Amino acid sequence: MSNRSCKNAPMICRKKNYQIGDSVIVVNCWGGYRLPNEIPEGTTVTVIGREAGYARIVFQERQFIVSEACIVSGWEYRYNGKWRDENDSAISAQCQEQKEVFS
Fold it and tell me: How many Cβ atoms from other residues are within 10 Å of residue 101's Cβ?
């Protein structure tokens, strides 16, 4: 997999894990997993619980259950034997280096 910001970088990445209490962004996703009509796409919500394949969230003091596929929690990259956050300076430097090589 690759991330838009590291399009040319041959790096392994995975979706960042999120915990109860974390703020995440929700989006409509493929298949039958749509957001409830009351939640606009791209909204930041708070996770209040997790169930197999789903997350309980709060939006405007109301609780909803959404598919985990609709949650944007960010990415982690495997670099020098460790998983690093997408905002880590080593990842940013590696992505920039790759862009320059492929430019």
Answer: 9
Which is nearest to 70 in space by CA: 90, 45, 91? 45
pLDDT of residue 98: 55
Give residue-wise pLDDT tens across range 49-99. Answer: 999 999 999 999 999 999 999 999 888 888 888 899 888 888 877 776 554
C-beta pairs of 61-70 under 8 Å, 24+ apart in sequence: 62/38, 64/36, 64/38, 64/39, 66/26, 66/33, 66/35, 66/36, 66/39, 67/29, 67/33, 69/29, 69/30, 69/31, 69/33, 70/26, 70/27, 70/28, 70/29, 70/33, 70/34, 70/35
Number of domains in the chain: 2
Q: Does residue 11 sit in the same domain as residue 45?
A: no
pTM of the model: 0.71
Q: What CATH number is attached to the domain comprising 69? A: 2.30.30.40
Q: Which domain holds residue 91?
A: 1-16+78-103
